[in-house]
Write a structure and sequence with these properties.
alpha+beta, two-stranded antiparallel ribbon, 1 helix, 34% helix, 12% strand
């Protein structure tokens, strides 16, 4: 199976995709197949934009 691995700390280019043996699973273990991932910073930025838009529209649309 393929896995993203790194052998040292560093920038994103230290992460490599490699073939690794499938792990032996115990009775209480789970093997998760990841189809897609995202980076948390994108979610944080989007959330900040949504919050800013809410504040803006509340200020514009609120009766004076």
């Amino acid at each position: 199976m393929k896995a993203a691995i790194y052998r040292r700390y560093g920038p994103p280019d230290v992460v490599q995709i490699a073939d690794v043996p499938r792990p032996d699973l115990g009775t209480k273990d789970v093997l998760v197949k990841v189809r897609a991932t995202g980076h948390f910073i994108f979610l944080d930025r989007r959330d900040a934009v949504v919050r800013a838009m809410r504040r803006f529209f509340r200020a514009v649309l609120s009766p004076s």
